[in-house]
Amino acid sequence: MPPQPSTAPEPESPVPSAIAEIENCLTRVSYLAGRARQHEYRMAMAGLPLDRAAVAVLRRLAEAEPMRPGVLAGLLAVEASHVTRQVQQLERAGYVLRAADPHDRRARRIGLTDAGRAAVDRFREAGRVGMGMALADWSDDDLRRLAELFHRLVDDFVTHAEVTADLGPTA
């Protein structure tokens, strides 16, 4: 005999349906933005031969002062050996430079070269062009409102992440 549909009511989710929709949309956007084909398209537009890991390293370095490899690994949530390999490749390509840490001469800090900054600018611009094409039919008011809401979303995510980190792991 085939299984019968349950007559019990579905348990109510503690999360409002709008939150579930937002999470679904963010998941889709993240997937679409992170696809290998999308990355290859952006790199072709930017004229750069960089893989996704290299782009992540360069983007993070562009957001801050030069930093130690261990700090960079922590910010990227990857193993230090991963950062070491990426930095070596990016250094050979002329995008990053390792220099002595002014606070500890035994340590090294990684920073962008002028070519590294130019590369970051080029792949950011390629991303903006692609986004502009996707949002070409949106009004200026809609774009401005979306930007405001995204800033608010990111700020709230950052605040929540900091509070969660302060609380430690949940039971």
Automatic annotation (TrEMBL):
Residues 23-155 form the HTH marR-type domain. It comes from the Bacteria. InterPro entries: HTH_MarR-typ, MarR/SlyA-like, WH-like_DNA-bd_sf, WH_DNA-bd_sf. It holds the Pfam family MarR. Gene3D superfamilies: Winged helix-like DNA-binding domain superfamily/Winged helix DNA-binding domain (1.10.10.10). GO terms for biological process: response to stress. GO terms for molecular function: DNA-binding transcription factor activity. This is MarR family transcriptional regulator. It comes from Streptomyces caeruleatus.
